[in-house]
Amino acid sequence: MVGSRAYTSLPGVKILWINPLGTSAYDSPMADLIRQIKEPRTTVELVSLKMNATLDNLEYRTLEALVVRETIELSRHAAANGFDGVVIGCFSDPALLEAREISGDVVVVAPCEASLQVVTRLCNRFSVIVGQEFWIYRITQRVREYGLQHKLASMRSIDCPVPQMQSDPAITKGRIAVAARKAIEEDGAEAIVLGCTIEFGLFQELQASLDVPVIDPLFASLKACEFAAGLKKAYGWKPSRIGSCQAPSESDLSRFGLFTGAPPIGNTIVLSASR
């Protein structure tokens, strides 16, 4: 009890999980895992994109740029359709600031930022395990933008394109284990972040064998979104809309003819609240 008002536990929330790809290939396995780890009162709608390109990865900036518009449109869709939170399900955090700007009262979370927020509560120096060497510059930029480069021990590559990561999880896990061990023993890492959402479902065995925290970005971003969305519903901690957080005016959006069509949803899997 604070003053004359009683505060209770966080309420159930409704989350839109965006797989920002032009394919539904990862939707079902991700949904199966999310179903296991979401809170009982959480509803999750997992969607992939309706777009001309059938993208199955965002490894390159060119490909990432192609999903910005759809991601922004879905953030606007979430604001208009009763969602409490949005997760942009790619570790490079595509269009995160843009989606937040247009999300109304909806909180927007992305895996890199969420994973770094978790890992920096657990250690002083961490390493990120990325799919390919050329990702390192871009992900390092993200770490720098989030103000955490001073805690970054290293980036290590497993030389594995995104489409191969779930085609043979045992090989992927083995490569991650080798890279993570080098990060710990040679770079001074005290914890490991898996630097791709498609590396999902591998962290527990790795964590047991490495004996350090191993952060799965799917877990981190879902839990971060559930928590932030719950805080919004319980305490009114919704996105600011002044200063640098100001969104385009509704009159401008109408004048420009924006957000007038159907949302760019190609596939949907609904994970309903159980109580």
Walk me through the topology.
Layout: E1 14-19, H1 27-37, E2 43-49, H2 61-65, H3 68-80, E3 85-88, H4 96-101, E4 107-109, H5 111-119, E5 126-130, H6 135-145, E6 152-157, H7 162-165, H8 169-187, E7 191-194, H9 203-210, E8 214-215, H10 217-235, H11 250-255, E9 265-271
Parallel strand pairs: 1-2, 1-3, 3-4, 5-6, 5-7, 7-8
Antiparallel strand pairs: 2-9
Helix-strand sequence = EHEHHEHEHEHEHHEHEHHE
Q: Quickly count the helices.
A: 11
- Rounded to the nearest angstrom, the distance between the terminal CA atoms is 26 Å
- The CATH topology annotation of the largest domain reads as Rossmann fold
Tally of separate domains: 2
Query: Strand order within the widest sheet?
Result: 4-3-1-2-9
**Percent range for helical residues?**
40-55%
Computed CA radius of gyration, to the nearest angstrom: 19 Å
What's the count of strands? Answer: 9
The whole-number mean of residue pLDDT values reads 95
User: What low-confidence regions span 5 or more consecutive residues with pLDDT below 50?
Assistant: none
The first-level CATH class of the largest domain is given as Alpha Beta
Question: Which structural class best describes the helix and strand composition?
Answer: alpha/beta
